[in-house]
Amino acid sequence: MGLKNRRESGTEQQQVGPSIGHWRQRLLEEVNLDDLARLDMAQRRARLEKVIGHILTREGPVLSARERSLLVRRIVDEALGLGVLEPLLADPSVTEIMVNGPDSVYIERLGRLTRLDMGFASEAQLYQTIDRIVAQVNRRVDESSPMVDARLPTGERVNVIVPPLSLVGPVLTIRRFPRAFRMDELVSMGALDHYTAMLLAAFVRARLNIVIAGGTGTGKTTFLNALSGFVPGSERIVTIEDSAELQLQQDHVIRLESRPANIEGEGAITIRDLVRNALRMRPDRVIVGEVRGPETLDMLQAMNTGHDGSMVTVHANSAEDTIYRIETLASMSEVKIPYDAIRDQINNAVHAVVFLDRALDGSRRVGEVAVVASGRREAIRLTSIVRFEPEPIGLDRVVRGRYVYQELPRDLIHKLVFSGEAVPQVFGGDAAPPAPPGQPPAPQGPPPRAPGPFPNGTASPGRPTAPPPSLGGSSTNGTGPAGGTS
C-alpha cells in the first residue's frame, strides 16, 4: 500500500474508529499459535506486540507514535485479554467495573461511581469477552444458563447475567480486590482505631467466634483477611467460599470452593456440603466467605462443636440486624428447628459481631463492634463495645467522627485473660499489651482527646500521632494480618 493511500486510509480510519477486529484477525493469521502456547503471558504479549507492529508498518494507516502505541495495545488486549476492560483492570484505583450492555461502562473509584466514555464495538464482542472469562473456570453462560459467578486468574470476582433475564443486554460486573492489607495498614487508613484493632486481635487469638457483617462493598472480605492474620500459623484452617477470594498468609490452609450444576443440572456442590465435609477434615478453625442460606445452621453447629475461633461474613444493615438475619437464614434449612433452639445455638456460637459501614464520602470503616451478652434460654442480647459516632458532614463532604468505647462483659474479660490476652483499660481491663522493644510502654486508660475530636487526638480516626501500642500478631510472616474489598 502506497503512502498516499495509507494516509487516506488513516484519515478515514480516524473518522470511523480503528477496526480492532480486522487487525486482530490479521495478527492471528501471522502468528504461530503452537509456538505462542509455549510462552508465558508476558512473553506472549511481547511477541504479539512485535508482530502487530510489523503488520501496521506494512499495511496500517499513518499514525502518530501515541496513536500507534494505543492501537497496538488495544489489538493485543483484544487477542489475549479482555479487550477494552484491560486498561481498567490495570488501574489500581478502580475497585469495581460495571458493564451494562455494550455501550455503557461504569467504574467505582474511591467509593464513587463514574460513567466512562467508552464501550464495546458490538454486543458480539461483549459476549466474546464474557465467554473468555467463564471458560477459564469451566463454566458457561447462555439462554439456558443466563447467570454465572466466576473469577479471573488474578482473583477478581465476576458476575454475569444475560438476556432474557437482563433487558439491557449482557451485564458484566467485576469486583476487584486490593492487595493484602495488614491490620496496622487499615488503622493508618482510618478503617478503625488502634484500640479497636487491639481488641479484635485479642478476640481472634483467644479463639472467639466472630461474624463480620455489612452491606455490599463495605470491605467484609478485606477485613476478614486482615483479621485472619492473627490466627497462629500452627493451626489448620479450612476456608469455604462460593468464589475463592480470601488470601490467608498461613501455611496450613485448605481452600474449598463450591461448584454449580453442570449442563444437565447435576453435580452441584453447595456451601452447605462443603461445611459438612470440612468438619471431617480436622480443622482448628473454619472460615466461611459468606453465609446466605441453610448452610448458616451447619456453620452454627460447627462453632458449637469444638471449632472455636471460626469466622464468617454475612450481609446485614447493622450489628443487631446481623443476629436476626443469622436466625432467619438458619431457619431456611429443611431441618425444622424451633426458633428457641436456633436462638440457643446463636447464643452459644457467636461471641462478637463486627459491623462495617460505608459512609457518604465512600470511605469504609468499622461502624460498631458488639458482643453477645446473653446465654442459653435467654433472648439474644447484644452489648455494643465500640461505636463510631460521626459528626455533621461539612462542606468538604468528608465524614469525620470519633470512636466511643464501653466496658466488656466481665465473663468475656475473664475469657480473654485466661487465654493470655491483655485487655486495655478503655474496655474495662486491668492492663494493656506490652510495647515491643525500643518503644515506650503502652498507655493506660483512654488516650488523650486534644487537640482533635477523635479518641487519639488527631484530625481523622485511626491516625495516631505517637507510636501506638503493638497489635501483637501471630501470623506466619510475623507482620500481622493480610487482607483482600468486598
Automatic annotation (TrEMBL):
One of its GO terms (molecular function) is ATP hydrolysis activity. SUPFAM superfamilies: P-loop containing nucleoside triphosphate hydrolases (SSF52540). Residues 427-486 are annotated as: Disordered. This is Pilus assembly protein CpaF. Coiled coil: none annotated. It comes from Actinomadura namibiensis. InterPro entries: AAA+_ATPase (IPR003593), P-loop_NTPase (IPR027417), T2SS/T4SS_dom (IPR001482), T4SS_GSP_E_ATPase (IPR050921). Belongs to the GSP E family. Residues 206-394 form the AAA+ ATPase domain. Residues 433-454 have a biased composition (Pro residues).
